[in-house]
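Hi R.,

Here's the chain you asked about this morning:
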Amino acid sequence: MPDDRGTPSDAFGLVRLTVNGDVRTCGVPVHYTLLETLRYGLGLTGSKQGCDKGDCGACTVILDGQATLSCLTPVWEAEGREVRTVEGLAGPDGPHPLQDEFDLRGAAQCGFCTPGILCSAAALLEHAGRPTRTEVQEALSGNLCRCTGYEKIYEAVQAAAERIHQARLQPSREPGSSNALSDGQTDG
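And the predicted structure, written out as tokens:
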């Protein structure tokens, strides 16, 4: 019996994605979206299933560096590409600066929209560095939040951008790095 998209509902296929740095292969119905594959095929439930129409932004992930509505993206369009979800934002040293700033500034209320907003903001910061308030507003214009009124969200994104910028200005203390010798240290 075909589903509402005209695809036989029992048609499955294997899809291979790089998700949060790990290559993953998953058997999914051929009509699945990227969101459905992440949630039901891979168990990554951070990206939320909201409107399924691309209106709310709760499903936003980062696909090859761009904020992408995963509810509108057929999973086969993501095959072989780099997908980053909210679960992949934190690094080995702890939460992403965006996650810290959202927490510090009370920018998340119920939390349903937060993963999508964080992914949209992370994609922005990867490309814009220190975005203006207008750039932040434009980047998040596809993410709806019914709880916060956006002010704290915008503040958190700009504060995270500043933290990232300041961290990049700090000299590296890694042995062998060009900046490690800047304080009179010798190589050996």
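Residues 151-169 form the longest helix (19 residues).

Let me know if you need anything else.
M.
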